[in-house]
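For consistency, the fold was encoded as tokens, which produced the following:
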Amino acid sequence: MTRVVVLGGGIAGLTAAFRRSSAGETTVLEAGPRAGGSVRTIREDGFTLECGPNTLRTSEAAERLLLDLGLDAVAVAADGKAPRWIVRGGSPRAVVPGPAALFNKVFTLKGKLRLLKEPFVAPRLASLEDESVHSFFARRFGEEAALYGAGPMVSGVYAGDPHSLSIRSAFPRLWEAEGAGGSVIRGFLRKKEKRPGDAQAPPRHRARTLTFSGGLFTLIENLQRRLASRLGCRVETNAAAVSVEGPLSSPGPRWRVRTADGRAFDADVLVSTLSAPQTARLLDNVLTRSSAALAAVPSSPVTVVLAAYFAPASPADAPRGFGGLIPQVEGFRSLGILYPASLFTGRAPEGFVLTTSFLGGALDRAFAGAPDADLLAVAGSEVARFFPRLGPPARTWIARWPEAIPQMPLGHHRTLAALDADLAALEATAPGALHVTSGFRDGIALGERIARGEAIGKALA
């Protein structure tokens, strides 16, 4: 029987274990006291609060997982018409995606006219190997789009710096669209064109944005219960891997993983879902081409401040919609503020509204580690700028993520290419022995992590 050890008990690692296609032992090693990675839900006194991701944007793999876990029927979908906001001039302004964005008040008339010129902008030079997100948007859509479109997008998704984040690695669809059509808009239009022979193609997946009545950790709990019911499958918490020996000579296991508490776990197949620096440290003897670059991949720290307020007398004075993103040029310290009780029912007891503020990030690293009092003061004052009639918060919670989100600096694609070369070399001598996935390689959204976990799980043999 094949023995599989999965390093990391986040959503990708748990999904890989759940989707394993062959029989045998499966052990998930999680360094912390609980599985779930960045998915963490507080359930307290009638409040349901998310400390990490607030919603699941489903991929096809995520939809299959919900169905197989019996969670599809209890999923709570967000209102697709709920407004989203971007701050400009100190005030939240409603935005909508797609062509209708030309009618919002985030961009000036000059900025909107510049957006329309994108198909006529000269394509990038063949010699341009990579580009920052800010530079890409400024070149293709104009400086205003870079500041008030790309800036808040980067803050909201990566808590990153748009001047240093790679467009090619962080938003590959945009980079590829320009390469395919000479223009981002033309590239996407070409992709949508129906090709001959596609008449029988399955309908395109329609992603949903959802959660569960008990919060996103419901997904983790159900995965753990299903894994615990399987013979030979276990999730070990407080089991930080400190060394990996291998690939070892046969006969016998290919790998031996040692944990901080002195235990050893033998494996025929190893799956790493750890961060780039952790992967490099544990597998430096195998990843000889890529380990130095992987060790240098940074992560941005994020601190989440959750607050409950007594609902104001007038609904017009309360938060509504998804929440707002805040461009750096606006002078706020919050990267964005979400309104979970407005988006989903049952998040708070009757008579309360909620806000979730994100602080720190790549451009404000030190403040992510500030004392609680400073974080609460800043978060509260910036919420008050938007909703002055809320009054002081009745309850607050703080969640700290020192290494929240992997960053993808310029040239990150070369790091990934070196990693691919290392994995290919190992595959030639030890087929199927090692699988590597993480946010720095396969996307950071929950739907993407589930999809990659499913793919690895089905490949395990």
